[in-house]
Amino acid sequence: MIARLVWENLSHRPIRTLLSVLMIGVPVTLILTLVGLINGFVEDSHNRQSGVGADILFKPQGSNPVSFSNASIPSKVVELLAKEPHVAQAMGEVIAPIGGFDFLAGIDPAAFDRMSGGFDVVAGHGFAGPDDMLVDSWYADQKHLKPGSDLKLLGHTWHVAGIVRPGKLAHIFVSMRPLQELEGTEGHVSQIYLKLDDKAAIETTVGYLKNKYEGYPVMSMAELESLISVDNVPLLKPFLDVIMGLGVFIAFMVVSLSMYMAVLQRTREIGILKSLGATKSLVMILILWEAFFMGLGGTILGILFSFGTRSAIHAVMPASLPQAIVYAWWPIAGAIAMGAALLGALYPGMLAVRQDPIEALAYE
Fold first, then answer.
1. pLDDT tier, 62 (very low <50, low <70, confident <90, very high otherwise)
2. Beta carbons within 10 angstroms of residue 39's beta carbon
3. pLDDT > 60? residue 221
4. Pick from 189, 216, 243: which residue ends a domain?
5. Mean pLDDT throughout 229-241?
6. Does 3 or 101 have the greater pLDDT score?
7. Is residue 354 one of the residues assigned to a domain?
8. Digit-coded pLDDT (tens) for 115-137
9. Residue 186 pLDDT > 70, yes or no?
10. pTM of the predicted structure, to 2 decimals
11. Is 250:336 a contact under the CB 8 Å cutoff?
12. Phi-psi domain of 308 (left: phi exceeds 0; alpha: psi -120 through 50; beta: other)
């Protein structure tokens, strides 16, 4: 009987029910989209670091392992590291942030080819001149670039020579020397990648380099990938907590308003139920079940909308804002929505059970 009463009430007012479900789905979509963006950024960073082909990363003194670094390591350190035991190759990189999480990667093309196996060029060609730039296909789609296009960054006009497959180090590549001259960092690099002749020597080589080059952060690529997480990237964890709190608040307020209006619209119905002998607990159960089903519907709708936001964001900013579908967050977002729905229904539910049947029957 309870199930039928709940179903009849929800289906009797389809517009109100659909709007309530939609408004619950919005914060679910918000949570899943932002969690997806954060995890997409982390996954993209992992993939690009793995694509370098290096075993060890050497960072400037006093730098954060997971943040961009200024070009402050003397280039001669690259030559010194190349001569260390088990080091088969050392490659410097110059990083020039251009806004958000995007940056120019200044590389020595020949050294990069030896370390990573080279670019997989899908259109155009590789480096041929000092102003040439290579971009991956995601960034090319985002900026509507093609071979032969010009792109102005850091006050300099670069020539897009080719488009490459994503997944190696960065989204945008230029030759190191022109970028050093542009940034005024001649003779310095931002970080150094090392490739060893023996994978089994990675940990011992890391320890050896830490002792010899005291003050310079040195870590294996596996350690670096473990550090690139929501908890370790500055400001991401607090940002995620704020968004989750905002989602809960929105869901709570929306459901509270929706259920409050539902109780007002059902004043006579509740009076009839109570006059027929319905107990306070039965009325409360009916209201909470309605909130439960609206929360469930909002959760499902929010999950479906998150696929839509991923498609929309990927169509507009595939390189800067990669969004992942994080299945592990579906039950979490659902629990938030359902909990907010049930909590939001408590106050109007208490109003409903306190109604006097005589006054309720006289309500217009």
1. confident
2. 19
3. yes
4. 216
5. 67
6. 101
7. yes
8. 999 999 999 999 999 999 999 99
9. yes
10. 0.81
11. no
12. alpha
| 155 lies in the same domain as 76 | yes
Residue 259 confidence (pLDDT): 66
Q: Residue 324's pLDDT band (boundaries 50, 70, 90)?
A: very high
Res. 175: pLDDT tops 80: yes
In a domain, 255, yes or no: yes
Boundary residue ending a domain (186, 216, 246): 216
